[in-house]
Structure formats: structure tokens, C-alpha cells
Design brief:
mainly alpha; single chain; magnesium; Terpene_cyclase-like_2; 0% strand; Terpene synthase; 8 helices; Farnesyl Diphosphate Synthase; metal ion binding
Length: 146
């Protein structure tokens, strides 16, 4: 339940829609509704959300904000905070591996869109990397809000 709500509240869906607008991409409906395409979109969103939950953990813990995957896993699994961080880190790694392999799958299913798929996946990579860079550079997570 949390993971689905986290995806919807992340703002990533809007960012992903902007890729289509900015790059003037118009993929066929068959591609957009394919399982491989939906898995790719979900992986992008998951990586950003779950990485953010690790980076923002201290702030959210200090503010008693339990809307964080690490804290939810700690609570539901009855494990230590460090073990929960490790679990989420492993989830991010697995999702990143899926993300990195999906371009090949998209190209196999939709070979006539090779150039567009490459541009699209590169834009997603830039979003993931940009979010991670911002998360470490912003002062937002450096201290608890008062």
C-alpha cells in the first residue's frame, strides 16, 4: 500500500510526462500500454522514491514522520534501523538493475523506435541522477524542521 501511494505522491509522474512534451515524443499506444514500458516507468519512480527515503531518513525520523519506506520496513519486519536501510538499499539496487536492462527489452519489442527509446531512457537516467544529486546537495535533509 505504501509503495503505490509513494509512487503517486512523488511528483515523478509529472516529470516523466514533461519528457514527452519537451522531447516531442509520441510513442504508439501499443508501446505505452505494454508491460515492459509500464515496468520501466515504475522502476524510474521506485528508484527516485526509495533513494529519497534513504536520504531523507534522518530528517523524517527526527520529525516523527513515519511516511518513509525504511521506517515502514523497520516497523513491519521488527528489525534494526540499519537492517531496514540495507533492505531498502538492496531494493534500490534491484530496481536499478531492472531499469538498466529495460532499454534492451524496449528495443527488442519496438525496434522501429530505436532512436526515440534511447533518448527517452537517457532522459529517465538524467531524472534519476538529477534527483540523487539534488538530494545530497540540498539543505532540506541536513536538519530537522522546527
Amino acid at each position: 500500500m505504501y509503495i503505490e501511494k509513494r509512487r503517486l505522491s512523488s511528483g515523478m509522474l509529472i516529470g516523466i510526462d514533461f519528457i514527452d512534451l519537451v522531447e516531442r515524443m509520441d510513442f504508439p499506444q501499443a508501446m505505452c500500454s505494454s508491460d515492459v514500458f509500464r515496468v520501466f516507468l515504475r522502476a524510474t519512480n521506485n528508484i527516485v522514491c526509495w533513494s529519497n527515503d534513504i536520504v531523507s531518513l534522518r530528517k523524517e525520523f527526527e520529525n516523527n514522520d513515519v511516511n518513509n519506506l525504511v521506517l515502514i520496513i523497520q516497523h513491519t519486519s521488527h528489525c534494526t534501523l540499519q537492517d531496514a536501510v540495507s533492505i531498502v538499499r538492496d531494493l534500490v539496487r534491484a530496481e536499478t538493475e531492472l531499469f538498466m536492462n529495460i532499454e534492451r527489452d524496449l528495443l527488442r519489442e519496438f525496434p522501429t523506435y530505436e532512436q526515440e527509446i534511447h533518448l527517452y531512457t537517457m532522459a529517465h537516467r538524467a531524472m534519476v541522477r538529477g534527483n540523487l544529486d539534488w538530494s545530497y546537495e540540498t539543505s532540506r535533509y541536513g536538519q530537522a524542521e522546527t
